[in-house]
Amino acid sequence: MAVSVHKNQTQSTRAWTLTANPHEIQRWRQAVAEALRRWGASREAIDLACLGVSELLSNVIKHVDDPRCRLRVRRVGERIVVQLIDRSPTPPSFEAPDWDSESGRGLWMLREMCAQFGWEKVPSQLGAKCVWFSCALTNKVER
């Protein structure tokens, strides 16, 4: 387990360099949840962020040859932004899933649940990309 917490963290940013591993996804969900709790996030926002962390890390494990990545969560005003930088240039697939398949729905569902969702190439790291999503800090589920 290779992990480093970046020393330049602020009260509004938490970031970790890690090696994606299926046995440690819960650990990263808890780390993100703790950061969001400190920022006063709603239960719904924390749950959505944790779901997203699981999905993004699972995709690194499943689709990226090099599991080293960087997870970052930021508070930007009244929004939460979760970013995962991996070492693959391959864009994520956001197509409507095959509902009869055992997998392949996670990113599509996350995109539908978040206020914003996207990806971009990371110019400073050849062959890297950042997949990100955001939601309101006090995201409430409409009933």
From TrEMBL:
Keyword Membrane listed: no
Species in which this protein is naturally found: Streptomyces millisiae
A Pfam family that the UniProt record links to this protein: HATPase_c_2
PANTHER family per record: ANTI-SIGMA-F FACTOR RSBW, ANTI-SIGMA-F FACTOR RSBW-RELATED
Domain Histidine kinase/HSP90-like ATPase: 19-119
Single Gene Ontology MF annotation: ATP binding
Keywords: ATP-binding, Kinase, Nucleotide-binding, Serine/threonine-protein kinase, Transferase
InterPro entries associated with the record: Anti-sigma-factor_SerPK (IPR050267), HATPase_C_sf (IPR036890), HATPase_dom (IPR003594)
Protein name (Swiss-Prot/TrEMBL): ATP-binding protein
